[in-house]
Amino acid sequence: MTFPERFSEVVVDFPRKKILTDKNGSYTSDEVFRTAQFVAAEILNHQSFKGERICLLAPPGLSYVSGMLGGMMSGAMMVPLCIDHPKAELEHVIEDSSAKIILVHPDLIHLLDGIVCQKKKLIADSPPKEPVPYNWDYPKPSDNALMLYTSGTTGKPKGVVHTHASLASQISCLVEAWEWTDEDSILHFLPLHHTHGIINKLFCALSAGAHCEMLPKFDAKIVWEKIVNGKYSLFMAVPTVYSKMISYWESVGDTTKIKYSESCSPFRLMVSGSAALPVSVLEKWKTISGHILLERYGMTETGMVLSNPLQGERIAGFVGKPLPGMEVRMVNAEESSDSVIGELEVRGANIFKEYWKKNSETKKSFTEDEWFKTGDLVTEVNGNYKIVGRLSTDIIKSGGYKISSLEIEAVLLQHPAIGECCVLGLPDETYGEVIAAAVVLKNNLQVNLEEIREWMKDKLANYKLLTVLKIQDSLPMNSMGKVLKSELRKLF
Ligand code: MLC
Ligand code: AMP
To answer: For residue 10, how many other CB atoms are within 10 A of its CB?
Structure first.
């Protein structure tokens, strides 16, 4: 069953239940559905957008949810934009997806100044007083549903296309594995242009008839206070969020520490994913909250693949076993000191259809027998997998965001003072990795980290800015003229 169809069932089952809260108030499932119908009917003018793309630029809350649902009901593939991205990043997604319409919240319309697109439509951010009938044809499972932009080993972010079938499978797989029900409640503070925030948190909650409270953004203090005053059963975040929650807990007085820790007891499940969870963070979080984090592994292309169990032993440092409907295998395995390491390949109903308008990249990312090549290196013990690295040195994971060093190098080379550069990820306690660059300056020109960060701000998202800069006379190269990243790493 497609996601909008599933949500329409939730509306029948729990019409008066408050399922969504944002900074303006709380909404019943009926109000959310009515707003989505309003988007499809009044804003999109009852038109069928089957086969088209609609971009969505809305803050966390009713306008985002109704934009997503209303757009999907019109038959379009939805392309969420990040409200914190600079114009250059927004423009790339809007142009690459060739969206017919951008649904935009009135407060964010200025972000689109100067961006050429076919149409901008202001989206509603309160429910209509009266129901607005919209006779929609349910999208078919094979129709495109959602396109998310993710960085890869080539240049700029590319669109990952999920059909209604793969989207529905991702949702039902998690609802089943983590036993979501209408009794659940989750606090949402993750970005809404990536799988983790969109599917694992928001869509699973909406599909289960659970309650989702959406904050404008993550802030450790606000999240702790919400936990103290709210009634949530589920918590899901990237490791950086747990690190920041731990740091904040450590900074408060003893009485507040006790209050915060006690407020964690009503939760039934706390999940970490999108990047490696350091065992030290898992242990500190256990001491603070009493919960053993459930670590799981996934990708934008594959949805969630591996998970530690809801019931049963969760193994620190491991990401568990395949989720329902997913198959995995380790290929090109090689013995390392005390384990066998290979690339993880994945097969199953969660997997994406294609990279948007990139046939050869799509083809290259699958084997002939249709396993998706993740590029992640794993080891396995008793059926439990551990992520130990990546095949490519051009991918950085920082704060749970996947970042391409090639994309950053291409931007840095546009700087008037930079002649050569190489970007890599350095280990960092809070962000997992931070972005570092070694640069060779053009004759006698000078530049420092602050100036480069400032110069990068209108070109790249804030999580792609440099944290470390090293100015070098030359970069270590091999005989083919390729920078030796392993040598360079030693300099930092
Ligand atoms: C932000 N800052 C960083 C940074 N991110 N510095 C270094 N490295 C980074 N990665 C800096 C900003 O430039 C800013 O600096 C300051 O930190 C505050 O910025 P912020 O935007 O308020 O960030 P912060 O609170 O630090 O963000 C942490 C975070 C965020 C964890 C909330 O990174 C986040 O939302 N991550 C989630 C990403 C995600 O959803 N990934 C899932 C992908 S899907 P200044 O100087 O301006 O103050 C996927 C599949 C799967 O991976 O398995 O789930
Ligand atoms: P993205 O492209 O943003 O969806 O990121 C997917 C990548 O995040 C995967 O290929 C992994 O490298 C990484 N990842 C996700 N979950 C985990 C995890 N639990 N441990 C280690 N890496 C992870």
So the answer is: 21
